[in-house]
């Protein structure tokens, strides 16, 4: 067997890996044979020498068994020299074998990464597609394995510098491979840093169109797609829990239609807000946020867009990235809007994408004078009755998306003309017009006509519209005023689906509790004034003082009346007794007044001592706390919220309370607050309207999206035509679920015999044709005439 070992390399390889020192002589003999074969191979490198290939793979497999062998340490350098000198002329199989041997040595950490990386980029010049795929895959995998356990920042910086230099190479394949490697490492989270992103951004103005398109698609192509909604059971539990929290705030003793509609509106609002939270965040960690100088990048790409004569698809990509850079980083590029305006026509190819790019390029800091020509182009070219309803709907949707990012671009006359389409007969047109009206109801209702403004909500009165360039920085969290009231923690814990809602029978008890809690709130407000000494305290003191004065006044008037009567009688008799009596009466009145004052002071002191203890122990329900919040004015809410935020750290339970208050404010109609007793100029509350008439505005007011999906513009509300195969499949599915045709009235006795009519269905035609003939004889002349007429018309049609 020993004589067969030199020829059987796989068996020798296995034995060496098990016991390296016992087979050192066999290994050395094979290494000497490799050196001779290598010299022969250099004489004809283009030949397919499989013996040399087998020896190279053998040495690469057993190289880790002899790490201190000096001859074997030179083995990787020999392979690198062969690939660099004879790489393009080598046979593809031999070249692939040498590369795999180097990759094997690199995986065993017998070769530095920078050396092999340099060799890989040199071999990219070879006309071998399979080799390029192997090299690119190895580079990505190797860098990923280097950073698997910990980030090697020094080596990463060297690798990034090397790839950055390769981006300026003259060979397009090497540049494309370096770009693909960096993009793939960013996607895998290995090099997800600003340095890598800014190196990729330099390829956006490459002279090679393919390289430029690859870099631009990295920034804008990965975030396109449909938003997937999460359907986990945990999210459903959270939705139900949030819904129950909001319902606790509006349950009342009588279920009127108005209150029922209000409950439905709260449910719908909660579902929509939770659906938005469950959506996958698109463009959250996008590479566009990591660019150091977005203004320069946008200007250079826009310059290339105007100078180069590229394909239309490439121009669309350039418009997309420029619009996103403008919208995300709030840049100012005034020449971009007239360029887009040239493409805004219904007959333009991919016009919906261009409309989306126009909306993406809008942000609150763009002057309205730059955006108004774009709005006019959309209005004149799309929102006209000479085009189809689908075109009008897309134009209105594009206008809505643009105005949602810059509310000041619209003027009053144009808005009223567009809102007038809300009475259109086409569903897509009136839905788009109403969405635009709903947007301005929230953002700036003063531009709308009075009949289309709608009723203001509590949230709208807190967040009033701003002017162009105005920014209001808040020093508090809106809704934090509810934390001033002590509430039950059970109201904010997530409830399971199995828990049943309270029945209607418990409404009376709940309403009694509500009345008790409202009275307790009013008492609590009175008690707090003794502790804090606020404005309420002054009002109560003033009212108490007036009561004391009135009591004293009544007693003093009666005493004066008695004294006057006595004095008149004594005038007739004696003047001296008059003085004595009057002095005694006044002394009695003074003693009575002092006693009353002392009693009132004692009562107030008792209240001060007793009532703070009861206020500390009192805990309100969620419903009562929200009612107390809604009774406050916006200024009082802001003051309480700022005090709370500046005095404590907020927990998750606190944010849950704040979110519940925000949901109620969003659906609760604004009511003017209670006026003070001496203030008669305060407006009275307006009669409430059902919330079902109010449109839910969240989906039209959402300006957090950093790019405009095409689905928001192509909302045409029309059933799409489908092919015959899909119709047949739908028909077969309906046949399985539908009920059988025929009379639904079944037999009273399922075991009874069949009728004569049922028996005729199973007979042959010869048995019943005489009955058919008799039936024809019984037909009237009018029926025969109509039948003859139909047959003659059929013959004329077929002839």
TrEMBL record:
Domain SDA1 middle: 557-733
Region (Disordered) location: 492-622, 667-697, 719-762, 776-799
Entry's localization field: Nucleus, Nucleolus
Keyword annotations from UniProtKB, A to Z: Nucleus, Protein transport, Ribosome biogenesis, Transport
Comp. bias intervals (Acidic residues): 498-531, 551-574
Main function: Required for 60S pre-ribosomal subunits export to the cytoplasm.
Protein name: Protein SDA1
Organism, as annotated: Hyalella azteca
Gene behind this protein: LOC108679735
């Amino acid at each position: 067997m020993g004589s067969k070992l030199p020829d059987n390399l796989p068996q020798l390889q296995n034995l060496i890996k098990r016991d390296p020192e016992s087979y050192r002589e066999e290994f050395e003999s094979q290494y000497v044979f490799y050196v001779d074969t290598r010299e022969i191979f250099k004489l004809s490198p283009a030949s397919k020498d499989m013996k040399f290939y087998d020896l190279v793979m053998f040495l690469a497999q057993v190289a880790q068994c002899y790490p201190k062998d000096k001859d074997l340490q030179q083995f990787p350098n020999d392979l690198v020299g062969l690939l660099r000198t004879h790489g393009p002329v080598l046979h593809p199989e031999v070249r692939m074998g040498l590369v795999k041997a180097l990759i094997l040595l690199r995986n065993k950490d017998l070769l530095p990464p920078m050396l092999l990386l340099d060799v890989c980029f040199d071999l990219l010049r070879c006309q071998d597609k399979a080799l390029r795929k192997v090299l690119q895959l190895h580079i990505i995998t190797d860098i990923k394995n280097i950073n698997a356990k910990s980030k090697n920042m020094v080596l990463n910086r060297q690798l990034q510098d090397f790839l950055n230099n390769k981006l300026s190479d003259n060979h397009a394949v090497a540049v494309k491979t370096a770009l693909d490697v960096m993009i793939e490492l960013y996607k895998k989270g290995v090099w997800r840093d600003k340095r890598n992103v800014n190196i990729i951004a330099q390829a956006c103005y490459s002279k090679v169109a393919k390289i430029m398109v690859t870099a631009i698609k990295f920034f804008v192509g990965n975030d396109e797609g449909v938003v997937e909604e999460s359907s986990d059971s945990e999210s459903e539990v959270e939705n139900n829990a949030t819904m129950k929290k909001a319902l606790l705030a509006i349950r009342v003793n009588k279920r009127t239609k108005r209150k029922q509609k209000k409950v439905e509106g709260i449910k719908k609002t909660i579902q929509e807000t939770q659906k938005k939270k469950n959506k996958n965040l698109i463009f959250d960690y996008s590479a566009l946020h990591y660019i150091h100088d977005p203004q320069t990048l946008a200007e250079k790409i826009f310059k290339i867009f105007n100078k180069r004569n590229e394909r239309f698809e490439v121009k669309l990509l350039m418009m997309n990235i420029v619009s996103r850079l403008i919208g995300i980083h709030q840049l100012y590029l005034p020449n971009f809007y007239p360029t887009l305006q040239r493409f805004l026509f219904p007959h333009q190819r991919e016009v919906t994408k261009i409309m989306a790019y126009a909306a993406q390029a809008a942000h609150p800091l763009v002057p309205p004078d730059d955006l108004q020509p774009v709005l006019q182009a959309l209005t004149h070219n799309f929102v006209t009755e000479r085009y189809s309803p689908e075109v009008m709907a897309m134009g209105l949707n594009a206008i809505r998306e643009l105005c949602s990012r810059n509310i000041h671009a619209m003027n009053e006359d144009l808005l009223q003309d567009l809102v007038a389409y809300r009475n259109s007969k086409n569903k897509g047109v009136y839905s788009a017009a109403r969405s635009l009206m709903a947007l301005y109801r929230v953002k700036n209702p003063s531009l709308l006509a009075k009949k289309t403004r709608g009723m203001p909500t509590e949230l709208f009165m807190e967040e009033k519209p701003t002017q162009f360039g105005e920014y209001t920085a808040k020093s508090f969290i809106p809704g934090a005023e509810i934390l001033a009231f002590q509430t039950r923690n059970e109201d904010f814990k997530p409830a399971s689906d199995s828990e049943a809602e309270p029945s209607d029978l418990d409404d009376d008890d709940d309403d009694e509790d509500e009345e008790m809690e409202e009275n307790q709130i009013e008492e609590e407000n009175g008690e707090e004034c003794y502790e804090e000494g606020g404005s309420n305290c002054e009002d109560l003191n003033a009212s108490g003082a007036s009561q004391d004065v009135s009591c004293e006044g009544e007693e003093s008037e009666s005493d004066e009346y008695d004294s006057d009567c006595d004095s008149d009688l004594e005038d007739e008799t004696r003047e001296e007794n008059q003085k004595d009596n009057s002095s005694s009466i006044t002394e009695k009145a003074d003693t009575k007044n002092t006693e009353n004052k002392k009693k009132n002071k004692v009562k107030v002191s008792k209240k001060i001592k007793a009532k703070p203890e009861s206020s500390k122990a009192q805990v309100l329900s969620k419903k009562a706390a929200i009612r107390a919040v809604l009774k406050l004015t916006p200024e009082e809410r802001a003051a309480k919220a700022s005090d709370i935020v500046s005095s404590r750290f907020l927990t998750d339970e606190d944010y849950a309370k704040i979110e519940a208050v925000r949901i109620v404010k969003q659906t609760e109609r604004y009511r003017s607050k209670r006026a003070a007793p001496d203030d008669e100029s305060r407006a009275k509350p307006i009669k409430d309207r059902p919330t079902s008439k109010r449109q839910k505005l969240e989906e039209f007011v959402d300006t957090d999206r950093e790019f405009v999906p095409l689905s928001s513009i192509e909302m045409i509300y029309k059933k799409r035509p489908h092919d015959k195969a899909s119709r047949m499949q739908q028909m077969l599915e309906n046949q399985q679920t539908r009920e059988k045709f025929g009379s639904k009235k079944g037999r009273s006795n399922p075991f009874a015999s069949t009728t004569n009519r049922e028996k005729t269905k199973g007979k042959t035609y010869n048995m019943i044709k005489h009955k058919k003939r008799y039936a024809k004889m019984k037909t009237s002349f009018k029926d025969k005439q109509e039948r003859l007429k139909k047959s003659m018309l059929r013959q004329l049609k077929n002839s």
